Amino acid sequence: GVFAHLEMLEARAHEAAVKQEEMEQQEEKLARLKARVQELRLQRDELRAKVDLQQKGQLGKEGVVSDPAQPSARAVLEWKIKSVKAMLQVFYLTGISGKLTKRGVCFCISTAYEGTYLDSYHLDLLTKAEVQIHRHSVPIFIPLEQIAKKYLQTDIRRFLSVLSDHLNAYAGRRYQADQLQDRFSDRIEGTLQRNSLCNLLVFNYNVSRKSKTFPFNARLLYGDPCCSLPTEVTVSCTPDAPASLAEMAAAHSDLFRRVALHKAFRSFSSTEGSVD
Amino acid sequence: MDVTVAEYIRRTVLKIPRDEIKTMLQKWGFLSETQLQTVNFHQIKENISQDVVQLCEENSADIKQAAVLDIIYNHIYPNKRVWSVYQMNKTGEETEFFDLTDFKKKFKRRLRSALKNVTINFREYEDNAVWIRIAWGTPYTKPNQYKTSYVVYHSQTPYVFISVSVLKSNLPLLCQALVVASNYHDIREMELRSHSLNSLKDIVFKRYSQNFQTYYPRPLQERNVAPESGDLRIIQENRNEKERIQRVNQEVFGDGPQPKLEFAQYKLETMFKSDPKMDVLDEKEPFRCLVKFSSPHLLESLKSLAPAGMADAPLSPLLTCIPQKARNYFKIREKKGFFPGSFVSP
């Protein structure tokens, strides 16, 4: 009765569904094959064109295998990658470069001093809500928080520029102090007193004149954190030294204010060589 | 020479591993090279120390020089002590011009004005670190050279590394002297402790390797490409998952070595979440629980958990935030508001 009827209807529905599915699959297959045919036709045309070109080329010039006007896709890709890499390298060499990240942007500040590339420092910024520093590798003695408080929200360019100035000046000061310790250690008496920011240097050094050595004491204060030259220099000699030495001390003091520390010392060596 | 000084020098020399004694005495510089030549450094340490004390007697060593030897020993073997990190604060914005002589003067003056019986020694090192050794006495007794505190301070940084010995009562005095000498306003203890002084420095000075995304192409040698093993019959079934774990691990931990910490401690003050039917706790009180992870090298072991298959990657941020948050002691309380969960106290 009713159940048998229901069963029959169910079976019919099932058959219809199955047929429907089969038809859909057939159509899909057909579409795929058609697309494949298109592909193959395209390839055939390309190859035919190549063969034609080759034949024409051989009639004309000698030994031209492929048309330079139609470089291979691979060569084009390689050239593109190379030029992008070169562009990124250029950005890196300018000192401030960045890369977009999932949550913001990551900046890289590279420092350099007079042609020598020094350390690089990174800043991972979040930019979704307000701009925030997520993490960084800036040394702790650089006043990053102060600079961020002033500029980060309002003017990111200025923030990066000021931070870069601080980092480059620090790198330059440290480079000079390191050079002094490495290259002119024979002229330094005792230890070179420095600090983390390299903005206060105190040391004793020797000046030789007419085969006698005189001790000088130098105190270099770098008042401007964005500058790699000192703002205040005090060079003193012993109280009983001759007057000419006092003059020399003044001259040295002036020199240290104008010229990089290791270069100043290099000039001492050269002038002494000529005097003796 | 004072008998106590002689004994102190003798005991300090006994601490040094035998092969290192000569080098350390040379670094000390108190005994001349000719004097050192007279000592046989191959005999037992007991005898070496007696010989050294004899030589120090000839040079009339006093407690200041003996203290310097102690600083040198602790500088070379800092991991024998537990170091805590303290952070100083100040409101001024002027540029710092750290003058070492000024610092030392202010520190000594401040400390001595409160407690006359202290031995204070300084030693500076190449990395702009000042080591301070303080031996504490009381208003009525001389300084006890065996009850010493060590302070390591890098100029123009807000962090101080302190290794206190037994006398914790002198800590406020020490902190005050540091704040005054370095021109800061206040100081607080951070939740960061370890035996490895250099690792603590790496964490707060951000010298550990963090993985920053840059375009600057790294030389290919730096990328970890595991060499394919020779046997082609071995097929990696879940290569994709392995590579994903490597990538996630590298993003979190970076490429370089991790700072060395021995433990991480989590104090839970959260509610115990159980099936209401089980009714484990009658009163709804926070379930007090302390979870402590210990390891000879905690961060390296956390880094190797996921590749070893012992944990899912990425690891819980409670574990991976340790270097960035610069802490290894945490208090976890209930998050207040609609969403139950936990939140880490600052």
UniProtKB/TrEMBL annotation, chain A:
Pfam families, sorted: CENP-O
GO CC terms of this entry: Mis6-Sim4 complex; nucleus
UniProt keywords, alphabetically: Centromere, Chromosome, Coiled coil, Nucleus
Coiled coil feature spans: 6-57
Location(s), subcellular: Chromosome, Centromere; Nucleus
Superkingdom of the source species: Eukaryota
First-listed, main subcellular location of the protein, grouped into a coarse class: nucleus
Family stated for the protein in its record: Belongs to the CENP-O/MCM21 family.
Name of this chain's protein: Centromere protein O
The gene coding this protein: Cenpo
UniProtKB/TrEMBL annotation, chain B:
Domain of life: Eukaryota
Primary location group: nucleus
A GO-annotated cellular component: chromosome, centromeric region
Stored PANTHER family: CENTROMERE PROTEIN N (PTHR46790)
Sequence similarity: Belongs to the CENP-N/CHL4 family.
UniProt name for this protein: CENPN protein
Protein's gene: Cenpn
GO biological process: CENP-A containing chromatin assembly; chromosome segregation
Species this protein is from: Pygoscelis papua
InterPro entries: CENP-NAC/CAD_complex, Chl4/mis15/CENP-N
Cellular compartments annotated: Chromosome, Centromere; Nucleus
Alphabetic keyword roster: Centromere, Chromosome, Nucleus
Pfam families from the UniProt entry: CENP-N (PF05238)
